[in-house]
Design a protein that fits this description.
Layout lengths: L2 E4 L1 H5 L10 H10 L4 E4 L8 H6 L5 E4 L4 E4 L5 E4 L4 H14 L5 E6 L3 E3 L4 H9 L11 E3 L3 H7 L4 E7 L3 H14 L2 E7 L2 E6 L4 H12 L6 E4 L6 H6 L2 E5 L4 H4 L4 E3 L6 H13 L1
Helix pairs in contact: 2-11
Length: 277
């Protein structure tokens, strides 16, 4: 039986960050058949919990580009790889030395998104989540001294996310960081650049899940649209991207389907369900 893993932004969600009207029905029926439908995102899982619960999902979420695999229903952590606090301090110190207000710096932990101000990304989330119940909103921690607060809260940090219109600046910054620390980095959206502990990506996370569930990885179908999805394209049995993905991404995949705004991923999964029901 096939099992499915999807990226969220630009893939499963439309450009308004909405899911297909029939998505819950398809996912629940698929799960009832014994298959799996799993989110794999560059976001922290705490930023997709409203989708998770509203869609009736019951499995793990691969988040922070593979540095965390956690079941939001049970709280079980299947896999976690975090930065040492000294590494976070070093990266933040190097960022401060840039003295560049055009770059926004976030730290993702098990419990919060940390930033020293209400960033573009956080403001957008607040707007999208304004009408949601408090328990489903993304927990944000805004403080002038984010490193001090992370230490005080004894947080494990899985990812750093930077937003910048000037891509060269963040790539140069990542290259400087990678000279002194063992890290991986990738663009997860047009202006969003992620830094993770070395060896963390969606592909390695899928390999860990295949082992955890004893499920053949060749039966795994993955959907993605950006460069942080490359590694899962490489390891899965079948890779699919929507036609809104860049040509470079489309060339990496086994199959190109319709647009994310047409909810092509859920249509693909629904077609599979109709064959096995």
């Amino acid at each position: 039986m096939k099992w499915f893993i999807t990226d969220m932004d630009g893939t499963f969600l439309n450009d308004k960050k909405e899911v297909a009207p029939n998505a819950k029905d398809v996912i629940v029926k698929l799960q009832d058949k014994g298959s799996k439908f799993i989110i794999a995102t560059g976001r922290p899982d705490i930023a997709v919990k409203h989708y998770y619960y509203n869609l009736g999902m019951n499995d793990v979420v691969i988040s922070n580009n593979g540095s965390l695999i956690r079941n939001l229903s049970t709280g079980e952590i299947v896999y976690q790889k975090s930065f040492k606090i000294e590494e976070i301090e070093k990266i933040h110190s190097m960022f401060k030395e840039l003295n560049d207000d055009e770059i926004e710096f976030h730290v993702y932990t098990l419990n919060y998104i940390y930033c020293d101000h209400l960033s573009f990304s956080m403001a957008r989330m607040k707007k999208l989540e304004a009408e949601m119940p408090e328990e489903l909103k993304t927990p944000m921690y805004i403080h002038d001294d984010i490193i001090g607060e992370i230490k005080k809260n004894n947080e494990d940090c899985q990812k750093i996310m930077m937003i910048a219109k000037n891509h060269e600046k963040v790539v140069n910054f990542f290259n400087a960081v990678s000279e002194v620390l063992e890290v991986d980095g990738t663009f997860s959206a047009t202006d969003f650049f992620d830094i993770m502990p070395k060896g963390c990506n969606k592909g390695t996370a899928i390999e860990k899940l295949a082992e955890y569930y004893n499920s053949p990885i060749e039966d795994c179908v993955v959907f993605g649209d950006n460069f942080n999805d490359k590694e899962m394209f490489d390891v899965a049995g079948w890779s699919v991207c929507p036609n809104n993905a860049k040509e470079e991404i489309q060339e990496m995949c086994d199959e190109v389907i319709g647009n994310n705004n047409d909810f092509s991923v859920i249509k693909y999964v629904e077609d599979y369900y109709e064959k096995i029901k």
